[in-house]
Amino acid sequence: MTALLRQVDMWRTSGLFGQLVRFGISGGIATLLYALVYSPLAGLGITSEQVANIAGYLVAVASGYVLHSKWSFRGHGGAATQTSWRFFLVSLISYAMNTFWVWLLTDDAVLAGPWWWPLIPVLFVTPLVTFALNRVWVFKS
Length: 141
Fold this sequence. Notes:
By secondary structure, the chain is mainly alpha-helical. The chain has helices at residues 2-14, 16-43, 49-72, 80-106, 119-124, 126-138. The longest helix has 28 residues, at 16-43. It is globular.
């Protein structure tokens, strides 16, 4: 227990804990916006799951950049010109991951699950990868 408390204190003093909390909130908002766009489009059959994924991605990446650059990683370094192209590249990685989840879990040739299955890894796996990439590469000091 003491080791865990020491680790949390180290994260707190290094700023990592605060970034993680802010990233969780900002990323949660961006992911919620993704789900709010994806769910009705895919769930009501307005369009295919992949087209709904693209629409959700576009909303999430725009809101995510503003939230993360202005709040999550504020003061963590990196000029706007350098962070913007790196953020975009990381967002393409997240888009590719989410596209993979949608394909794997909903495509008739693979698992053929319901439209909502991809939301599970979209909410719990992709954000962990994007936090790590944003922390160590996009908004690095």
